Amino acid sequence: MKGGVYLDAEAPQLVRAQFAVVHVRRGSRKRFAETCVELVADEATAMAMADPAHNLHAAEVMGPSRSSEGFRLYYLVRWLE
């Protein structure tokens, strides 16, 4: 288990760590709906797209993972800023 997400050793491509820009007020939340997450190619791109004044934060996230309600979620690994 990594950050609340169960990883499948036989299918690591399904849920993996990725860089992203997350559109939220930064606080204690550790998981985000896919509508709040924009995946990017690398850490540098995430940092360049971050704009804390507009609630856009660079992060490393784990996902996507399906919630019990059927939503796709991303879990925070770490903030990059």
Report on this model:
The protein has one domain (16-79). It contains one helix and five strands. The protein has one helix at residues 43-49, and strands at residues 16-23, 31-33, 37-40, 56-66, 72-79. A hairpin with a 5-residue loop joins strand 4 (56-66) and strand 5 (72-79). The radius of gyration is 12 Å and the shape is globular. It starts with 15 loop residues before the first strand and ends with a strand. The mean pLDDT is 87.
Q: Kindly give the count of domains.
A: 1
Helix content: under 10%
- With strands numbered from the N-terminus, the spatial order across the biggest sheet is 2-5-4-1-3
Radius of gyration: 12 Å
Q: What structural class do the secondary elements suggest?
A: mainly beta
Give the end-to-end Cα distance, rounded to a whole number of Å. 25 Å
Which spans have pLDDT < 50 for at least 5 consecutive residues? Answer: none
Calculate the mean pLDDT score and round it: 87
List SSEs in N-to-C order: EEEHEE
Biggest sheet architecture: 5 strands, antiparallel
Shape: globular
Percent strand: 35-45%
Overall number of strands: 5
Number of helices: 1
Keywords:
globular; mainly beta
Outline of the structure:
The chain is built from one helix and five strands. It has 81 residues and is mainly β.
Topology:
Elements: E1 16-23, E2 31-33, E3 37-40, H1 43-49, E4 56-66, E5 72-79
Antiparallel strand pairs: 1-3, 1-4, 2-5, 4-5
